[in-house]
Prior knowledge:
Number of domains: 1
Structural class: mainly alpha
Number of helices: 3
Largest sheet: none
Order of helices and strands: HHH
Helix content: over 70%
Amino acid sequence: xxxxxxxxxxxxxxxxxxxxxxxxxxxxxxxxxxxxxxxxxxxxxxxxxxxxxxxxxxxxxxxxxxxxx
Length: 69
């Protein structure tokens, strides 16, 4: 099964929830990173890590398929 087939197949319920959480984390951290105010370096660093984690969780969750044979 190639990646295009995996993306179009149905995703299990747990991974749909995980995908949505990942999207929310990526969006929130993106907003923090793009904030026009000065934030402490630790906050910026943590937001960068959360953005990566959210993006990875979203991508992996989207590629999981429900295989009911």
